[in-house]
TrEMBL record:
Keyword set, alphabetical order: Cytoplasm, Iron, Iron-sulfur, Metal-binding, Oxidoreductase
Name used for this protein in its record: Adenosine 5'-phosphosulfate reductase
Subcellular localization(s) per the UniProt record: Cytoplasm
Pathway in which this enzyme or protein is active: Sulfur metabolism; hydrogen sulfide biosynthesis; sulfite from sulfate
Protein source organism: Allochromatium humboldtianum
InterPro entries on file: APS_reductase (IPR011798), PAPS/APS_Rdtase (IPR004511), PAPS_reduct_dom (IPR002500), Rossmann-like_a/b/a_fold (IPR014729)
Record flagged with keyword Oxidoreductase: yes
Amino acid sequence: MTERRQPSLSTDTLPTREAAAIELLSQVCRELDSIVFATSLGAEDMVLTEIIRRERLPIRIFTLDTGRLPAETLELIEVVERHYGTQIERYAPHADAIADYVSRYGLDGFYDSVPARQACCRVRKLEPLKRALAGQSAWVTGLRAEQSVTRAELPAREWDAANGLEKINPLADWSEHEVWAFIRHHRVPYNPLHDQGYPSIGCAPCTRAITVGEDVRAGRWWWENPETKECGLHRREFAPRQPSAHPAIERDRSAA
Ligand code: SF4
């Protein structure tokens, strides 16, 4: 079990947020069948995993195993499976598509240009996601509006035209503090990289720790401009956003 080093935070708003997320997911389950939840094993996705399993909601859980995930994330998949007594389905890229990418760009060609990076995300994430969503009526995500400039107008429920199904974002209006308050309160397992300055965790070569004062998404594709920093799974229009502070960063600030 991960050591819990996140700071003590107010939980005043948590019951309301939690009840609303449960009600939204329950409503979707009453209206639709074939609902899936895409987890990246990040903090928000651990909140949703806890809710889905505890409320026994009929929602399948899957993850995109890109082949470049950090060891900590791979270990967390197994921790989650043991903790909740459930299986997380893995969707991996096709080997021939990876071989094509490597022959054209090189294994780490994503550092060279935005198109090269987007091509890698297409092969390792978007195509497996298409397979995972095929034939489903809705998918659940752990997106929050304040996470990035590309997510500022995020609704709780929307039509995902690119994939042809509903997209449910139960944590759209949650703050980072609420996410971590939930994790602490319910003793939810989480990725140990969060305690090492990684508020947002993706593939290992495209994720770094952030420093005091940096945006929470600064460690993702840090060599690109903010408006291009989406892998395509959740691409949205660019819009201004308020600065956000990961609890680990707040902790560092108060200690400075
Ligand atoms: S995050 Fe990086 S390694 Fe992962 S699919 Fe995208 S470009 Fe490739």
